[in-house]
C-alpha cells in the first residue's frame, strides 16, 4: 500500500523547498485514549518510511484501534541515472515525499490503552527520520 496521489496536475514538479517554520497551534482532540506522533522539526518523509512506521505500529497493537496517517505524500522526486549525459529532459519520478512542518502530528492512534499505545508509537517512530515526541492527547 504505497501512499501516493491518484492524480496530480503535473507529471513532474520542481525540487521541493521547505522553509523551516514552527507552528504554535496544538492538536486538540476530544477522544479518549488518543496518542499522536508529533514532529519537532521540519523536513520530508518518504512514502516507504511512512508505510514502514504504519506496519510496525499495526504489528504491535495487534491490528486493534484506529491508526490515522495525517500527511499526504504529494511531492514527486525525480532523478536521472548517474551514467546519463547532461540534457535530454528531466528524469522520471523516483519516489514521493510528504512535507512535514514542526509541531504537526504525523500519526494518530485511537482506541488503544496507554500500556500498548506508547510502545507501539515508539516502535513506529524509530522508522521516521525526524525528531519526534509522543503525546497523549
Automatic annotation (TrEMBL):
GO biological process: one example: mitochondrial translation
Domain of life: Eukaryota
One GO CC term, this protein: mitochondrial large ribosomal subunit
GO MF annotations in UniProt: rRNA binding; structural constituent of ribosome
Mitochondrion among keywords: yes
Keyword tRNA processing (UniProt): no
Record PROSITE patterns: RIBOSOMAL_L16_2
InterPro entries: Ribosomal_uL16, Ribosomal_uL16_bact-type, Ribosomal_uL16_CS, Ribosomal_uL16_dom, Ribosomal_uL16_sf
Pfam families: Ribosomal_L16 (PF00252)
Keywords: Mitochondrion, Ribonucleoprotein, Ribosomal protein
Family: Belongs to the universal ribosomal protein uL16 family.
Protein name: Ribosomal protein L16
Gene of this entry: rpl16
